[in-house]
């Protein structure tokens, strides 16, 4: 996988205690990498970091990315072959409650990672994780492309768009070609997310509490994709940052069948774990665009990447993970997560997706 790049490498992850970071650390350890993490404590209880067992992390620093000396010290001690920068306040709704915390964690956090790599003179690859929400949203029915204008109507989206601009400036000013890239993913679903105010975790909580799920915007359309599809893209970009020319940014989203409304997502989830939903009042001040699709042609063309799990399968694997954890006595979630990852890799191989079959 990934041309064998990760075996024996040192991978540094910021945000390793979060949902995506925990899956990424898990996969990197399975690939033979030594994983170092820098992050605040897990943002939720329960959390995937604990469920998968922090033991697979070689060394972790529980600290804030806004602490530049701390971040620099950590990278100096780690001497990574690759940095995946995921740490940020990632929730749109929370960004309205505390816009400056969101802005500083997204923008200063990104600048600190890049600045620490620069001042230490590290010869490392850097993958900066932003979001599909970095684009100036016109509610177009077609997908946003990597060279569309950046924008952001809410504090989270604007902060992530600003992180893109900061990365662009540092890359152009200080780094060699083909070493730093940004990755923009759509709305990710998958087992182990317990964030407040995200659809699938809300659905799980409502089922466990035996009440209808409350949806504010059931007809809003989003590009839903499984977390492993998103991470295979991040990992392939990292493996390809070998100093050869590579585009500076990549979208990773689902195929067209993943562009679904919130209600469709929940109806599909209910086929595996039944439950009801009800619409509650919109919050007019929370401006989240109704329509947001991502064009993934660049990742398909340059990386030979495409999603391995279509919408129905992504939802089924997600629901199965939660059902295994919450409805099965004595389930071993580490083993279950490993077999889920194996199923995913096997499906990618069967489809001939390049990262899954590429040799050095
Ligand atoms: N989950 C999604 O659907 C989605 C979609 C697009 C982009 N993203 C991006 O992916 C990344 C990871 O998201 P996630 O879903 O895993 O979120 P998460 O909330 O589960 O994890 C966020 C991580 O960042 C850490 N963190 C937050 N602020 C920090 C700070 N100031 N200093 C150090 N660590 C800090 C948290 O402790 C946690 O480890 C984020 O950058 C997010 O914006 C997520």
Please write out the topology.
Elements: E1 10-14, H1 19-30, E2 34-39, H2 48-52, E3 59-62, H3 68-78, E4 82-85, H4 92-97, H5 99-120, E5 125-129, H6 155-174, E6 180-185, E7 187-189, H7 199-209, E8 213-215, E9 221-226, H8 227-240, E10 249-252, E11 259-261, H9 262-270, E12 277-279, H10 297-303, H11 311-327, H12 333-350, H13 354-357
Parallel strand pairs: 1-2, 1-4, 2-3, 4-5, 5-6, 6-10, 7-9, 8-12
Antiparallel strand pairs: 9-11
Helix pairs in contact: 3-5, 5-6, 11-12
Bound molecules: nicotinamide-adenine-dinucleotide (NAD).
> Mind telling me which CATH architecture this is?
3-Layer(aba) Sandwich
Q: What ligand species are in this complex?
A: nicotinamide-adenine-dinucleotide
Q: Tell me, briefly, the overall form.
A: globular
CATH superfamily: NAD(P)-binding Rossmann-like Domain
Helices and strands: which structural class?
A: alpha/beta
Strand order of the largest sheet: 3-2-1-4-5-6-10
Q: Treating each run of at least 4 consecutive H or I residues as one helix, how many helices?
A: 13
Number of domains: 1
Relative strand content: 5-15%
- Compute the gyration radius: what is it? 19 Å
**Oligomeric form of this entry?**
single chain
The first-to-last residue Cα distance is 9 Å
Number of strands: 12
Largest sheet: 7 strands, parallel
Order of helices and strands: EHEHEHEHHEHEEHEEHEEHEHHHH
Mean pLDDT, rounded to whole units?
94
CATH class: Alpha Beta
Give the low-pLDDT segments: none
CATH topology: Rossmann fold
Report on this model:
This protein has 360 residues and is α/β, with parallel strands linked by helices. The protein has one domain: NAD(P)-binding Rossmann-like Domain (Rossmann fold), CATH 3.40.50. It has helices at residues 19-30, 48-52, 68-78, 92-97, 99-120, 155-174, 199-209, 227-240, 262-270, 297-303, 311-327, 333-350, 354-357, and strands at 10-14, 34-39, 59-62, 82-85, 125-129, 180-185, 187-189, 213-215, 221-226, 249-252, 259-261, 277-279. The strands form three sheets. A seven-stranded parallel β-sheet has the order 3-2-1-4-5-6-10, with helices on both faces. Strand 1, helix 1 and strand 2 (34-39) form a beta-alpha-beta unit. Helix 3 packs across helix 5 (99-120), helix 5 (99-120) packs parallel to helix 6 and helix 11 (311-327) packs antiparallel against helix 12 (333-350). The mean pLDDT is 94. It binds nicotinamide-adenine-dinucleotide. Nicotinamide-adenine-dinucleotide binds at residues 15, 17-21, 39-40, 43, 64-66, 86-90, 105, 109, 129, 131, 185, 187-188, 195.
């Amino acid at each position: 996988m990934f041309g064998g790049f990760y075996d024996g490498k040192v991978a540094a992850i910021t945000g390793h205690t979060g949902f995506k970071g925990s899956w990424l650390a898990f996969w990197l350890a399975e690939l033979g990498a030594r994983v170092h993490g820098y992050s605040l404590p897990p943002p939720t209880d329960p959390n995937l970091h604990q469920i998968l067992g922090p033991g697979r992390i070689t060394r972790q620093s529980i600290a804030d990315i806004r602490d530049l000396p701390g971040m620099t010290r950590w990278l100096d001690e780690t001497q990574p072959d690759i940095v995946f920068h995921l740490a940020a306040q990632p929730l749109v709704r929370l960004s309205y409650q505390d816009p400056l915390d969101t802005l500083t964690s997204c923008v200063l956090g990104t600048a600190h990672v890049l600045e620490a790599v620069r001042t230490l003179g590290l010869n490392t690859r850097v993958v900066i994780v932003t979001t599909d929400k970095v684009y100036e949203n016109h509610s177009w029915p077609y997908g946003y492309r990597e060279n569309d204008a950046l924008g952001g109507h809410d504090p989270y989206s604007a902060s992530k768009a600003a992180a893109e601009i900061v990365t662009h400036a540092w890359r152009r000013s200080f780094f060699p070609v083909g070493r730093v890239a940004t990755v923009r993913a759509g709305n990710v679903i998958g087992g182990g997310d317990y964030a407040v105010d995200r659809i699938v975790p809300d659905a799980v909580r409502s089922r466990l509490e035996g009440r209808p799920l409350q949806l504010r915007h059931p007809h809003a359309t989003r590009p839903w994709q499984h977390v492993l599809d998103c991470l295979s893209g991040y990992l392939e970009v990292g493996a390809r940052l070998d100093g050869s020319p590579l585009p500076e940014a990549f979208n990773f989203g689902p195929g067209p069948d993943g562009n679904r409304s919130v209600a469709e997502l929940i109806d599909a989830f209910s086929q595996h774990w039944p439950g009801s939903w009800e619409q509650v009042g919109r919050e007019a001040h929370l401006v989240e665009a109704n329509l947001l699709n991502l064009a993934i042609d660049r990742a398909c063309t340059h990386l030979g990447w495409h999603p391995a799990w279509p919408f129905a399968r992504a939802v089924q694997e997600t629901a199965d993970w939660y059902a295994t954890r919450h409805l099965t006595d004595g389930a071993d979630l580490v083993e279950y997560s490993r077999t889920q990852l194996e199923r995913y890799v096997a499906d990618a191989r069967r489809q001939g997706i390049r990262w899954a079959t590429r040799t050095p």
